[in-house]
């Protein structure tokens, strides 16, 4: 098994005891929704109430904290990174609560839903428009999960960030490719 | 003495053209959904790139609404 897979398994095992079990988010969670690309970004959505507990857990595992705000934290251990997004607003708390438990090649993991994943990808894109990878991921998720997504929820996220025109554009692109 | 013909190094009248057309679609691989595809993919990636480049990006931005 890859070094990255071992890193994730170790972290997930150490998360036992959290108020809410963290859920996979970001590029790796894409793979649980039929979009597979190479990524070494290990991102978890976690309950903000678990922030201090997780901080101690990660330091015990040898990570050092390179950034921490009320919304997110970045940890590094050599060339291994692990990022946490803190769920403290209602939408993120709901998405964390609704994350599904999956039997995966890395063991049982909680994974955020595809709609929420699109929402967080959109938030990342809004915060850093040069990260076109996030836009590619959104497009790939819309394509891979076509017909299975709760589009009202997806629309809600794009409206939240004032990007409904972007959603229309992406859906039109996908329709063009498949027609 | 170097008898090789000199290669022109500038072509101001030429326009660079992509080799395979102007648009290359991103083609994410469809997965099984159990992360096994990603695990296999990353084993190959790690074999080809055993030393990862330094991470420089932190999660920035100020527009957090979710």
Tell me what you see in this structure.
The complex is a heterodimer of chains A (179) and B (66). By secondary structure, chain A is α+β, with helices and mostly antiparallel strands. Chain A has helices at residues 3-14, 27-30, 51-60, 90-98, 114-127, 132-144, 151-160, 164-178; strands at residues 23-25, 35-36, 43-47, 64-68, 72-77, 80-87, 100-104, 107-111. Chain A has a five-stranded mixed β-sheet with strand order 1-3-6-5-4. Chain B is 20% helix and 3% strand. Chain B has one helix at 36-48, and one strand at 29-30. Chain A binds chain B through residues 1-5, 28, 30-40, 66-67, 71-74, 76, 79, 81, 83, 85, 89, 91-92, 95, 102-106, 109, 116, 119-120, 123-124, 126-128, 136, 139-140, 144, 157, 160-161, 177, and chain B through 25-26, 28-39, 41-43, 45-46, 51-52, 54-55, 58-66. β2 of chain A pairs antiparallel with β1 of chain B, so a sheet runs across the interface.
Please identify the structural class of chain B as seen in this structure: mainly alpha
So how many helices of chain A? Answer: 8
Terminus-to-terminus distance of chain A: 40 Å
Give the termini distance of chain B in whole angstroms.
68 Å
The pair of chains with the biggest contact is: A-B, 54 and 32 residues
Main sheet of chain B, how many strands, which sense, barrel? Answer: none
Instruction: Tell me, rounded to a whole number, the average pLDDT of chain A.
Output: 94
Number of distinct beta strands of chain B? 1
Proportion in helices of chain A: 40-55%
Give the total of beta strands of chain A: 8
Q: β content of chain B, as a range? A: under 5%
Strand order of the largest sheet of chain A: 1-3-6-5-4
